Amino acid sequence: MNNRVGIDGRTLTGPFTGDRSYWRGLLSAIAPLAPDLQFYVYSHRPFPAGVLPPASNLVLRVIPSRNERFWSLFTLPACARNDRCALLHVQYSVPFGCSCPVITTVHDISFRLHPEWFPWKHRLLLNIGVALAIRRATKVITVSETSRQDILRLYQCPPDRVVAIPNAISPLFFQPIAVTEAQRLVQEKYGVSTPFVLAVGVLQPRKNIETLAAAFGIAHARYGKPLALVLVGKQGWGVQEETIRARVAQYGGASAADSLVFTGYVPDEDLPFLYTACTVFAYPSLYEGFGIPPLEAMACGAPTLVAHAPPMPEVVDEAALLISPKNPWAWADALLAVLQDADLRDRLREKGPIRARCFSWEESARRTLVLYRQILATASSLA
C-alpha cells in the first residue's frame, strides 16, 4: 500500500491564527502515531524554525512561487504527484489536476451563513472555491458538529462524506504559570499593570468586538476601579481600532477609552501569560467553526465568557458563562459579576481546565488517521 500523504502546509509559514493552529496541532500529533506513513508538507515559503517537531516520517518541502493562488491550484498537485502521494490533505480547497484522493478541512462556512461579514472579493472566492472543494473532495473534515450540520444543510452532500473532528489546543496552555510571573511579563511587554479583560481574535465583523467594547465601557463606568480591555489580534477587515475606541468612549467616557489596549498579533509563547494574567476572558464572536481561544483561556484557568452562539455551547459546556451575543448590557453584567464575585471566578477557574482537557490533538489525530487509512486502503485496492 502506498503510504505517502501530502499536506498543504502554507498556513504554517505565517501568523494565520486558527488555520495555522490546526496544522501545528494535527501534524505534531499525527506523525508519531503513524510511523508507517510518510507525510510530505508543502509550502511556497520557508517554514519557520521549530514550527513542527522533527520526525523521521515528516518531510518539509518548499517550492517557491510568486503567485500563491497558482501555487495552490497547480504547483501543489504537481508536487504531490512527483512525490507519488496517495492522498492529499488541504484546507478549504481542492486543487485542479490532482491525481490522488483529496481530504479538505472546512472549518466553517460563515461566508455562506453571513455574507455581510465579508468583503465581496473574499465572499466570491470562498463561495466558488469551497463549493467546488466540497463537491470534489473524497472526504470533508470540519471541526464541530454544528459546522457539520451547516455544511450538510447548505451543500446537500451525502452525510457520510462530512466528518466532524474537533480542534484542540497545544499542551503549552496546560503548563502552570504563576500569576505574578504572568502579570510581570504582561506589564513589561504590553504596558498593562491594572486588572484587565482579555479578548483574542482577528479584528473582523463576526468577532463582535464592538459589542464587547460597549460592554466594557458600561462595566468600566460602574466598576469604579482601574480596569483595562486588552484586544489581541491582527487587523482584519470591516472593523477599525478608531471605531472600537469610539464605541468604548460612547458607553464609558474618555477614561474607559484610554484603558483600551491593542497589542496586534502576539507570539504564541505570550498567549499563556496573557490568559493567566487576565481577570476575565471574553469571546463575543457571533459564529465560529470551533473557537480555539476560549479553550486556551480555560486551560490557563481564566474565567471565561462566550457568546451564546454556534458552536460555543458544544465547546465550553458548563465551564464558561454563555451571554446573549449582541446585548452589551448583558455582557457588562457578566463582566461585573466575574470581577466582583471571587467565588464565581474560582468556580470558573476550576471548571475551565477540566473541560479543556476533554479535547486533545492526539485524539483528533487518531480520528483523522482512520480517514487516511480508509482512503489509502481503497486507493490501494483499486490500483
List descriptors.
6-stranded parallel sheet; 383 residues; glycosyltransferase activity; Glycosyltransferase; alpha/beta; 14 helices; Rossmann fold; elongated; Glyco_trans_4-like_N
Could you outline the blueprint of secondary structure elements for this entry?
Blueprint: E1 4-8, H1 17-33, E2 38-43, E3 58-62, H2 68-82, E4 87-91, E5 102-105, H3 110-113, H4 120-136, E6 139-142, H5 145-155, E7 162-164, H6 179-190, E8 196-200, H7 209-223, E9 228-232, H8 241-258, E10 260-264, H9 271-277, E11 280-283, H10 292-299, E12 304-307, H11 312-316, E13 321-323, H12 328-340, H13 342-356, H14 361-382
Parallel strand pairs: 1-2, 1-4, 2-3, 4-5, 5-6, 6-7, 8-9, 8-11, 9-10, 11-12, 12-13
Description:
With 383 residues, the protein is of the alpha/beta class. The protein has 2 domains: 4-168 and 360-382, Rossmann fold (3-Layer(aba) Sandwich); 171-356, Rossmann fold, CATH 3.40.50.2000. The protein contains 14 helices and 13 strands. The chain has helices at 17-33, 68-82, 110-113, 120-136, 145-155, 179-190, 209-223, 241-258, 271-277, 292-299, 312-316, 328-340, 342-356, 361-382; strands at residues 4-8, 38-43, 58-62, 87-91, 102-105, 139-142, 162-164, 196-200, 228-232, 260-264, 280-283, 304-307, 321-323. Helix 7 (209-223) links the parallel strand 8 and strand 9 (228-232). The N and C termini lie close together (9 Å). The model has no long low-confidence stretch (mean pLDDT 95). Residues 59-170 form the Glycosyltransferase subfamily 4-like N-terminal domain. One of its GO terms (molecular function) is glycosyltransferase activity. Keywords: Transferase. Residues 194-352 form the Glycosyl transferase family domain.
